[in-house]
Design brief:
With 281 residues, the chain is an all-alpha fold. The protein contains twelve helices and no strands. It starts with a helix and ends in a 6-residue tail after the last helix.
Length: 281
């Protein structure tokens, strides 16, 4: 009895200390996140202020570099005329369409290597061959086949993402822990359950790369031939030597890329929480 009482008195304070340590760690993590967020905002504001001051004082040629104030005025004009809003919509939709199609197609192709070893051995050389083809070089052909509209941009974004997603998924499939598969089978899991809970989450690592590749593909398609889109805006502004409008397109593209990136990060977190059981370190 004395031994049991001693054990209770020994372990209970230890658990309280551990809980306090967890709270301190959580507070430190939240404080660090706030500091990072504030640092990012301050850095962006500092860059814009330095840019504006440099243009006004003549440190840089405002014809080539423009200035944040002129860029903002031009962006407002373009937005009021509804040109900028539709260009953002056109580029966003073509990027998202190519991203979804490429990610789904690449994931199905890569995960099929786990489902069937025979299929993997047959198709692997062709996957490597397709990966070696410069996708952007196919843009003129896609423009001829699908026209200068929405479809050609989606196809180019699709080609930019599908092979990279397939290769990333194949690499992840090869790292899946076989002992975890065996454990799930021993617990009565069906093959499709193991597939969805252990193998499928490995495709998540390629999502951040895919959204960047899809945006790059859509923009290149707009550079070559397009009636709408941010890429078309940049090319058009360059042809009429409107450098301020060029900067509008570049900055809006950068902001769009950032928004899409963080959206995909949140999607990864959600999918990991709902799909992943185990991922080998």
């Amino acid at each position: 009895m004395k031994k049991e009482a001693y054990e209770v008195e020994y372990y209970e304070p230890k658990s309280v200390l551990a809980m306090q340590a967890d709270r301190r760690e959580e507070k430190h993590r939240r404080k660090q996140k706030k500091g990072i967020r504030a640092g990012r905002i301050l850095l962006g504001v500092a860059i814009l202020l330095f840019w504006e001051v440099s243009a006004r004082l003549g440190w840089i040629d405002d014809y080539y570099w423009s200035s944040p104030s002129l860029i903002a005025q031009t962006a407002i004009v373009q937005w009021k005329e509804k040109n900028l809003a539709y260009d953002i919509y056109f580029t966003s939709m073509s990027t998202i369409g190519g991203f979804l199609a490429g990610t789904l197609g690449g994931a199905v192709l890569g995960l099929s290597f786990w489902w069937s070893k025979t299929f993997a051995k047959i198709f692997e050389p062709y996957l490597v061959m397709f990966n070696a083809i410069p996708k952007l070089a196919l843009a003129p052909i896609l423009i001829v086949l699908f026209g200068i509209g929405f479809s050609s941009k989606v196809m180019l974004a699709f080609l930019m993402t599908v092979i990279s997603c397939a290769l990333a998924t194949v690499s992840g499939v090869e790292n899946v822990d076989e002992s975890m598969e065996t454990l799930l089978y021993s617990l009565g899991a069906a093959r499709w359950q193991v597939f969805g809970k252990v193998v499928l989450p490995w495709m998540l690592g390629s999502l951040r790369i895919n959204i960047s590749l899809a945006l790059a593909g859509a923009i290149v398609g707009e550079f070559i031939a397009s009636g709408h889109g941010l890429g078309r805006m940049v090319i058009y502004a360059g042809t009429i030597l409107d450098t301020t409008l060029v900067w509008v397109g570049v900055i809006v593209l950068s902001l769009l890329a950032m928004v899409m990136y963080f959206a995909v990060v949140e999607l990864e977190k959600w999918m990991t929480e709902h799909l992943a059981i185990y991922r080998k370190a």
